[in-house]
Design brief:
heterotetramer; A: alpha+beta; about 30% strand; B: two-stranded parallel ribbon; 6 strands; about 35% helix; globular; binds adenosine-5'-triphosphate; binds magnesium ion
């Protein structure tokens, strides 16, 4: 399995107009100047999959993730992560879409293939594809050293979780 | 439970050492149980010995050496229990050009079995990618567009 | 005491804004007293507004934008009360090539009045230096040797 | 004023043999591969001037700063910072040498122009040239963001100290 594309609307520096970011198999490099919005792509993925705290997404709380310009905030931030399945998830569908919408009041709605799910249901579902909160597959900017800075006990717990 | 843990631990340790030796030729790295007799009573130490040097207190090794150690651990975990995608944001920030190149080659190989989405400010890592995504900001709004990777011919 | 503080604060603030505008053209940055009526009852906030964008919660700005903000503050402090030397270790780690170039030019100018010792892994910043010091490790022992800066002619 | 050169013996990756690192006025770039010993130069300066904790120098305690190879530790770590004065320090000498030696038992000896001084005396002396512990002129690796991460009160205190 892999992420085929993202659909983003009103999330951080991605404006109100819906945009698609094609990803796909293999090795994809994301490039561009400082402040362009590259790290915001990783934030969008982590946001939609429910695998990072607001703080890790550089937001005081979820409503800070909503696009804002000239003092005007959009009504919501919305992200879809489109997976190609190929057996990554224990469901028959070839395409699995995980999405999340957060409104200005901070309320969040998670969906799997359009169906609303609770956050706990989503995290159980994603763990079947090896996707976890504080997993080792998402390394945010400045974060790589965390693996070395872990305490020995945290490191053992990481191995236990993987075992 | 202990049996499952030890099996995972030994396999990941083996991969970790192998990968670090490739990223840092002549260097050695391995994990160590604090309590070999009672693994769950202690944690796991990381021991990293760069080439020509003896084992150092982990904090004392350089920024680039730490990055190589951390990447080796991530790739070792991938060997044992792969994730379907990896997202790396500026992991090459503290790598010299030669190490960035070695990491680029390794990601390229491993991208045959997992998706790697890698944010980078430097050409070295980007030159190994199959696909380039350009991002820019205009009037405070981010735009995304596909780019041609001029450093290789497509296969 | 309040008078001395306010005088320093206003001058540093002015420099800070000026330098940030140079490092990030079109961008604005300034400091703000939390308690304008009672400065010692509160702290000082940093407000950074990159070009085309409105003021953001400081944490939300990008890694490169944060580096430019931090460097602007250091240079503003230098204008008010210079230190005899500055040591910068890999401050260009999260800067794109264009920003690294602007920072290199600025350090070069400021090095007329203070010594700047800058560790870098990238050619951009090193290309502005008057002098290059090469460091390498053999058998675990560091060796240092002078290098010629081939990107400029000596004056 | 400026740092004209460093003399280093047994400090971190700098072996037992005394070496000199010429610095001098203007803009000096320090380059070389990962693990070469570049950051250890900044550590040597901070160590000699007494302006960083062991932790900031990536050492568990001062004796970890002593060069060690094949299990054998040198007897001491020694660093001299040679300043050209030009009025930076309120003393008549043209050359000011600040040095520090730390022995395996962790005992430290500070000197100014060969004369032993207490750590407090050295920090008072250096503050006259604008050199302070936690000053803003020494930015160690990974540390640049600290200026933004400061709390508002810490930032005000930084300005107060400079005023
Ligand atoms: N809610 C929001 N509304 C509008 N813009 C936002 C919002 N949150 C963050 N931003 C903007 O997003 C930009 C940061 O984007 P991002 O961190 O993705 O940049 P980057 O491309 O990773 O840059 P760098 O190379 O410096 O790390 C900042 O300029 C910030 O002002
Ligand atoms: N007491 C010591 N004895 C011997 N070697 C030491 C000692 N303390 C640290 N080192 C070695 O110094 C090296 C780190 O040097 P340093 O941090 O200066 O590298 P660097 O050139 O800055 O590299 P990078 O570009 O990766 O940041 C490490 O390999 C470490 O093992
Ligand atoms: Mg970024
Ligand atoms: Mg370093």
């Amino acid at each position: 399995g892999y992420i085929e594309k993202l659909v983003i609307e009103g999330f951080k520096s991605y404006g109100r107009q819906r945009i698609e970011i094609p990803l796909g198999e293999g090795f994809i490099a994301v490039v561009g100047p400082n402040g362009a919005g590259k790290s915001n792509i990783g934030d969008a993925i982590s946001f939609a999959l429910g695998i990072a705290t607001s703080k890790a997404l550089r937001a005081k709380n979820l409503s800070y993730l909503i696009f804002s310009k000239d003092g005007e905030k959009a009504d919501y931030a919305y992200v879809e992560v489109h997976f190609k399945n190929f057996g990554a998830f224990p469901v028959p569908e070839e395409d699995v879409i995980v999405s999340r919408k957060v409104y200005r009041d901070g309320r969040s709605v998670f969906r799997i293939n359009g169906q609303v799910v609770k956050e706990k249901e989503l995290s159980d579902f994603l763990s079947k594809a090896g996707i976890y909160e504080n997993g080792y597959n998402v390394v945010l900017q400045g974060d790589i050293i965390r693996f070395l800075k872990m305490t020995p006990v945290e490191r053992r717990k990481l191995i236990e979780e993987v075992a | 439970k202990l049996k499952a843990f030890l099996k995972a631990y030994e396999q990941i340790n083996k991969s970790f050492s192998k990968i670090f030796a490739r990223l840092s030729p002549g260097g050695k790295a391995f994990m160590q149980l604090e309590r070999e007799d009672e693994p769950f009573e202690g944690g796991i130490n990381l021991v990293v010995k760069p080439r020509g040097k003896e084992v150092q207190y982990l904090e004392a090794i350089s920024g680039g050496e730490k990055t190589l150690g951390a990447l080796s651990l991530i790739f070792a975990l991938q060997d044992y229990k792969p994730s379907i995608f990896y997202y790396f944001d500026e992991v090459d920030a503290h790598l010299d050009e030669a190490n960035a190149r070695t990491v680029g080659e390794l990601i390229k190989e491993r991208s045959q079995t997992a998706q790697f989405i890698v944010v980078t400010l430097r050409e070295v890592l980007a030159s190994f990618a199959d696909k380039l995504i350009g991002v820019s900001s205009r009037g405070g709004i981010s735009k995304v567009f596909p780019l041609k990777n001029l450093t290789h011919s497509p296969y």
